[in-house]
Design a protein that fits this description.
By secondary structure, this protein is of the alpha+beta class. The chain has a domain at about 5-315: Deoxyribonuclease I, Chain A, CATH 3.60.10. Helix content is about 25%, strand content about 20%. It is built from 10 helices and 18 strands. The chain has helices spanning about 20-25, 45-50, 100-105, 140-160, 195-205, 215-220, 315, 320-355, 365-375, 375-400, and strands spanning about 5-10, 30-35, 55-60, 70-75, 85, 110-120, 125-135, 170-175, 215, 230, 245, 250-255, 260-265, 275-280, 285, 415-420, 430-435, 450-455. The strands form 4 sheets. Strands 5, 6, 7, 8, 9, 12 and 15 form a 7-stranded mixed β-sheet that branches. The protein has a 6-stranded mixed β-sheet with strand order 3-4-2-1-14-13. The chain has a 3-stranded antiparallel β-sheet with strand order 16-17-18, with no helix packed on it. Helix 1 links the parallel strand 1 (about 5-10) and strand 2 (about 30-35). The termini are far apart. It comes from Dinothrombium tinctorium. Its cofactor is Mg(2+); Mn(2+). Belongs to the DNA repair enzymes AP/ExoA family. One of its GO terms (biological process) is base-excision repair.
Length: about 450
């Protein structure tokens, strides 16, 4: 094959975006998918995610925090990698970090590196594809800014080390979590260029005559394109007004640029607060490894051979089919008994209600009704619990009057939206009203006006 397509996408939760992700994987139009922020643990992965037809999967999970961060690379069988690793540190390098720093930087499952080989004329070349989800700098936690800058330094040290070998090229794809230029941000402030993360990124893209340098492929091919964003605040409906940032990149070393055909944003693909970015390459013949790297999901012991998932219980004992059939029958019988009991209870309630309307005001005792229906003590306890629960619901409905009625915003004269302060501080948890329109440029009359009002 002389062409290659790679897609990178921050899915903001692989399980929540699973339907869209599987649709993309089943299209077979793309050779390699790099997904970030999977937010999934190994024990939450089923066979539909682990075994995608005609692809092999390589996951990286956080080691100390579940449901957080994480990346996965899917490679088609045509471009099966020769190696895969989830660490920047592979041969005991320190890159000027102490051991505890390296351990922390590698603990959040933010990296998957696959090694590919391709032919350039008659010469074999190495291509290291780095799928990366860079950390976010939390304004309320200065330590995370230090963590992010150290992560950048570690990544740069690794790729520069790899480029010391002849016939080696680098592709970095993923969420870099920093917009590079003012053109890449919907509303850059006065201190935009002072960000230390932005300064590092601009230095990373600085052309050098004495050493290999790195290229922001999209901006190199589309230097004047404005409003080319890849991430939006979906809570504020900012995607509707395209009020976002460009923080998802395809990056290569300068020597690899001759193989690049185009880089496009797939803004019509929904399912996340990011959109996918597609990199198209030409005149590149990728080789296929004869075997799978050890990190492939095909070697995970919790799954059986092929594409059928094997449950962990199958490793412990063999379940007799007669036992399973008997258990299913007993379960169905219990469900029927429960349904009959509830029907009896509803009948009792109805008959109780009618006795109070009789002219002679004769009451039917609880014990009498129990005898008629053949209730057991456990069934009676269940009925009393349901009655108490229903009474509580009615009482709460009488007490609560629901959320306050939203006032009209001053800019559009439409009902505003109720929100809650989540930022740490004296107002955390307090509610307020804002314009319900999507956030957007200040001079756009269709976007959010400046209405704000505290809820009482």
């Amino acid at each position: 094959m002389n062409s290659l397509k790679i897609v990178t996408w921050n899915v903001n939760g692989l399980r929540s975006a699973k339907h869209t992700v599987l649709q993309m994987l089943e299209s077979h139009d793309v050779d390699i998918y790099c997904f970030q922020e999977t937010k999934i643990s190994r024990n939450q992965i089923d066979d539909s995610i682990a075994f995608v037809p005609d692809y092999s999967a390589y996951f990286s999970f956080p080691k100390v925090k579940s449901g957080y961060s994480g990346v996965v690379t899917y490679c088609s069988e045509r471009v099966r990698p020769f190696d895969a690793q989830e660490s920047f540190v592979t041969n005991g390098e320190t890159f000027d970090f102490i051991e505890s720093q390296l351990k922390e930087l590698e603990s959040e499952g933010r990296t998957m590196i696959t090694k590919h080989l391709f032919m350039d004329d008659k010469e074999q070349m190495n291509l290291f594809l780095i799928n990366v989800y860079c950390p976010r700098a939390d304004p309320e936690n200065p330590d995370r800014l230090i963590f992010k800058l150290n992560f950048y330094r570690l990544m740069e040290s690794k790729v520069r080390q790899l480029l010391q070998n002849e016939n080696t090229h680098i592709l970095i794809l993923g969420d870099i979590n920093t917009s590079c230029k003012r053109i890449d941000h919907c509303d850059p402030d006065d201190e935009f260029d002072e960000s230390p993360c932005r300064q590092w990124l601009n230095d990373f893209f600085t052309i050098s005559n004495d050493k290999p340098y790195f290229i922001d492929i999209f901006r190199h091919l589309h230097p004047e394109t404005k409003n080319a964003f890849t991430c939006w605040n979906t809570r504020m409906n900012a995607r509707e007004t395209n009020y976002g940032t460009r923080i998802d990149y395809c990056i290569c070393n300068n020597g690899f640029l001759r193989y690049v055909e185009d880089c496009v944003h797939l803004t019509d693909v929904m399912g996340s607060d990011h959109c996918p970015v597609m990199l198209k390459m030409k005149n590149i013949k990728i080789l296929t490894s004869p075997s799978y790297p050890k990190l492939s999901t095909k070697f995970w012991p919790e799954f059986g051979v092929g594409t059928k998932q094997m449950k962990m219980t199958a490793f412990l004992h063999r379940v007799d089919s007669n036992v399973m059939e008997r258990e299913n029958k007993e379960s169905s019988s219990r469900k029927r008994q429960k349904t009959t009991s509830i029907k009896q209870y509803l009948s009792i309630v109805s008959r109780k209600s009618s006795t109070f309307t009789q002219s002679n005001n004769t009451l039917v005792t609880e014990s009498k009704l129990n005898e008629e229906c053949g209730q057991t003590a456990s069934q009676q306890a269940m009925f009393e619990k349901i009655s108490a629960s229903n009474d509580a619901v009615i009482q709460w409905k009488n007490v609560l009057c629901g959320p306050p009625k939203p006032p009209l915003c001053t800019g559009h004269n439409i009902p505003s939206t109720l929100r809650t302060v989540t930022k740490v501080g004296p107002n955390r948890g307090r509610q307020f009203f804002v314009c319900s329109r999507p956030v957007g440029p200040r001079n756009d009359p269709t976007s959010q006006c400046g209405f704000f009002k505290w809820a009482k």
